[in-house]
Design a protein that fits this description.
The chain is globular, with a radius of gyration of 19 Å. A 6-stranded mixed beta sheet has the order 1-2-10-7-8-9, sandwiched between helices. A 4-stranded parallel beta sheet has the order 5-4-3-6, with helices on both faces. The protein contains 12 helices and 10 strands. By secondary structure, the protein is an alpha/beta fold. The protein folds into 2 domains: 200 residues, Rossmann fold (3-Layer(aba) Sandwich), CATH 3.40.50.1100; 107 residues, Rossmann fold. The longest helix has 18 residues. The chain binds pyridoxal-5'-phosphate. The site of pyridoxal-5'-phosphate (PLP) has 19 residues, from helix 3, strand 7 and helix 8.
Length: 329
């Protein structure tokens, strides 16, 4: 058994778990199940909330009154931090990456409603992100505040606990459903969900592989980033677990034009899945990963015999509203 650190209760869990019968029949491959982590909350929803349960607990344990975090201008993570910070009475400062003057829509609109302080930086300024964090932490120290830094996506050894716990929850879902899926599939961006699930399946003895579909960067990047998160976790919470034996399985075939940019096939799939299953995907994360899974099913990359695949829906709905012009209505 594994000893979890302190966490706050911020996510609505366990999240629903059920099969997508019509879509599975249409694809004619293994049965697809959905784990609805897009239902961890209403506006404070998605995979980040699970990570933030541990990160906010750590921040409060350290006596911090301010949270600094970073991400793209439509970051789901930053939106979740802004809203949860407001809920907990903490000041939130977001460092957002954008090259043009962004419109106050989607996640950014919610950041603003939540009262977060927002600093916009260009892509080239963002390359010195470590120094930006340092600068703002010093700034708050000078004001007599104590600021807690959460890395992009909440992906580090602390945030990873969210998906170590989620793996345990999935194990219970599998037992209840009487299945032993061949794979848990999900979108990977900053790597923490992938690191947590990969480690979580190992520690909870779940005989299911974890397959991450990249929405940016390549396999080599995720190999390095996920291992770095695992090493950070090991350094903070020493154990006998051999993290080097874990299989970090990333597919980078479906990244598309760039991070945050999707081709017409992704928007077509978003429409199809919404109409067929009442399930909303987004063009930045879940749409790309779901598309990759469907294509790989069609290509026969998943076993037909072993039966079941689980798609972890990590949220991202507000990002869809920021790109509604590509839906063609
Ligand atoms: C909706 C959504 N799905 C997936 C991810 C990827 O998770 P991670 O950053 O832990 O790789 C993110 C975060 O970046 C996200 O917002």
């Amino acid at each position: 058994m594994i000893a979890y650190p302190e966490k706050l209760s911020l996510a609505q869990t366990p999240t629903p778990f059920y099969p997508l019968e019509r879509l599975s029949a249409l694809l004619g491959g293994p049965r697809i199940w959905i784990k609805r982590d897009d239902l961890t909350g209403a506006a404070t929803t998605g995979n980040k909330v699970r990570k933030l349960e541990f990160l906010f607990a750590d921040a409060l344990a350290q006596g911090c009154d301010t949270i600094i975090t970073s991400g793209g201008v439509q970051s789901n993570h930053c939106r979740a931090v802004a809203l949860l910070g407001a809920q907990l009475g903490l000041k939130v400062h977001l460092l957002l990456r954008s090259d043009s003057q962004p419109l106050p829509i989607g996640n950014l609109l919610l950041d603003q409603l939540a009262g977060a302080t927002i600093s916009h930086y260009s892509v080239s300024e963002f390359k010195a992100l470590d120094r930006l964090f340092e600068y703002w932490q010093n700034h708050y120290r000078g004001q007599g505040s104590r600021a807690y830094a959460i890395p992009t996506g909440g992906s580090n050894g602390v945030g990873m606990w969210g998906y170590i716990a989620a793996a345990e929850e999935l194990g219970n879902d599998f037992t209840r459903a009487g299945i032993c899926p061949q794979a848990i599939v999900h979108a990977t961006g900053s790597g923490g969900t992938q690191a947590g699930l990969t480690l979580g399946c190992h520690v909870h003895k779940i005989e299911t592989s974890v397959k991450a579909y990249a929405v940016c960067d390549d396999i080599a990047y995720f190999q390095h980033k996920v291992l770095a998160d695992l090493q950070d976790w090991q350094a903070r919470y020493p154990s006998q677990i051999d993290i080097n034996s874990l299989v970090i399985d990333t597919c980078d075939d479906y990244v598309g034009p760039a991070y945050g940019k999707a081709g017409p096939e992704i928007f077509a799939l978003i429409k199809q899945v919404a109409a067929m299953e009442g399930l909303l995907l987004d063009p930045v994360y879940t749409g790309k990963a779901f598309y990759g899974m469907c294509e790989d099913i069609k290509k026969g990359k998943y076993s037909q015999q072993e039966g079941d695949i689980v798609f972890l829906h990590t949220g991202g709905l507000f990002g869809l509203f920021a790109q509604q012009q590509y839906l063609g209505y």
